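pinned: reference chain
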Amino acid sequence: MDLDTLTYDTDGAQRFPGAVADSLVALRAILTDLPTEQAGVRFQGLGQLGRFMAADGVIGSVAASVLGPNARPVRAVLFDKTATTNWSLGWHQDRTICVQRRVETGGFGPWSVKAGMQHVAPPSSILARMVTLRVHLDDVSADNAPLLIAPGSHLEGRVAVNAIDAVVRRHGTVACLAGAGDIWLYATLILHASDAATRPQRRRVLQLDYACEDLPGELEWLGV
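pinned: its structure tokens
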């Protein structure tokens, strides 16, 4: 499949070739001190990323193209896959958000703490109004563990675990190849997976969730 025929509106995923190509050196330098010995590092407070992630920045403008000028980053994870950290992940949806503190709120739960940050599963309607960006700091070839997606699966809403395989078969799969500097934009609810690399080379991906609305009641996004 020609990856450039995928569109966010139709498939829930779209590639933006070379979107941060001119910023790669700066982005790699900002992220260089994060731990590399684990599958994914959740982080918060790297102020140098702000100008890139803002709605008018080279990263944030991709989110803003869907969410509008109020788009803001609400969670960040760095994935650093190498020959020694070469994991796989089965088909799933991202179902939690990161908030400042636990406030019992109808429709939100269960609660969990990851990397010292408070997470909670929100109503699926909130996830449906979010987008996820994967900023590629290295090339991702077919044998270097590209993300796999089921195009259009986000339109199914929250998918029961025992129905995931059937939904993936119905929608088919696409391997999201990328060059260093590309951004992939996804609907946050899209079903996705990742195999272990068959020829592992370093594969760093900065993953950012974006939202454009406030949470209800006293709940607040933690932010990035």
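why pinned: The CA atoms of residues 146 and 161 lie 23 Å apart. The radius of gyration is 17 Å.
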